User: Which sequence fits this backbone?
């Protein structure tokens, strides 16, 4: 398996673990038109657990080459992905989740009898309404480092979707 395929699998595992901890279901679209996973919050309503609220589609990317500054994660996103993400709507939200990985594959995971770690961190960003670009291959984006993709962050995003707020 190529490093790129392993990185893709690990980014999906990361996002699925965060979704599980945030109380969200996680589905993989049958055909990929720019969305890699669809998340939906599950709540107890009338004694039954059921999906509630709106879906959140996420596009997963993983990289060993992001630039980390004090305040941001800087990443060169391919133009096709950028255009798909910037055309997201209120009715069909689509967020980028970028998993920043160590440069060496041997450092991607660590495990012991009491833990399994996926090394480094994923960050989220909505690019809805981002400006068009004349670039042909990639667009340099900047994601605030405070946008770590954590269970608490995902719960805030899902709550914002309920109230049709942008975050």
Assistant:
């Amino acid at each position: 398996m190529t490093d790129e395929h392993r990185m893709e699998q690990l980014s999906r595992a990361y996002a699925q673990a965060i979704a599980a901890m945030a109380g969200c279901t996680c589905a993989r679209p049958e055909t990929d038109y720019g969305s890699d996973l669809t998340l939906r919050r599950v709540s107890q309503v009338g004694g039954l657990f059921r999906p509630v609220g709106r879906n959140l589609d996420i596009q997963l990317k993983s990289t060993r080459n992001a630039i980390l500054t004090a305040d941001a994660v800087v990443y060169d996103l391919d133009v096709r992905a950028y255009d798909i993400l910037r055309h997201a709507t209120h009715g069909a939200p689509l967020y980028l989740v970028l998993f920043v990985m160590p440069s060496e594959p041997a450092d991607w995971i660590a495990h012991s009898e009491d833990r399994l770690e996926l090394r480094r961190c994923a960050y989220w960003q909505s690019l809805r309404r981002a400006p068009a670009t004349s670039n042909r291959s990639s667009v340099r984006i900047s994601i605030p480092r405070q946008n770590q993709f954590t269970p608490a962050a995902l719960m805030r995003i899902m709550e914002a979707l309920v109230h049709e707020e942008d975050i």
Observations:
- The helical segments are 3-21, 79-86, 151-162.
- The chain has one domain: 3-162.
- Residues 3-21 form the longest helix (19 residues).
- The radius of gyration is 16 Å.
